[in-house]
Amino acid sequence: MAEHYFVIVGNNFRGGVRMCGECDRGYDDGDHIEITDLKPYTSYVCPSGGGLGHSSRWTGAYHKDGRQLRDKFCICGAELVAEDAETWRLSWEMGTDYGEWRPVAREGSKHSTHRQHDGLLDLIAQGEPIRNVKLEAVLRG
């Protein structure tokens, strides 16, 4: 059989090995083209932002018999990009039911903190008791 991409069809396993839907062989036993668009143990995000209508992906071990050509795309059609390694700190205050303000802070990637920052500003615009939203890069070294 000619070289082809490994085709995943349901739970088609034999002896603990996933079988290709095209040639009915395991990945290592068939003439399969390796999909190398994404790296293992990497977080990928949609470059357009995220939220509803977008997706992200953590590849984990990313076994060869579990890869698909569409893995590199967001559900909106954009090609996913590796999430940045920058660290940013997001802090804000949330109002309590008792009229007090509780400080909240978190650190994360540039992508995730900027996305959450935008979400907090949207909540403020909707009247949620949130104030003093601050976003700053964390310098390491």
Describe the protein.
The chain is mainly beta and 141 residues long. The protein has 3 domains: 1-33, no CATH class; 36-83, no CATH class; 87-137. Helix content is 11%, strand content 30%. The protein contains 1 helix and 10 strands; from the N terminus they run E-E-E-E-E-E-E-E-E-H-E. It has one helix at residues 110-125, and strands at 4-5, 13-14, 17-18, 32-33, 43-45, 56-58, 81-82, 87-95, 101-109, 130-137. The strands form 4 sheets. The protein has a 3-stranded antiparallel beta sheet with strand order 6-5-7, with no helix packed on it. It has a 3-stranded antiparallel beta sheet with strand order 9-8-10, covered by helices on one side. Strand 2 and strand 3 form a beta hairpin. The longest helix has 16 residues, at 110-125. The chain is elongated and about 70 Å long. The N and C termini lie far apart (54 Å).
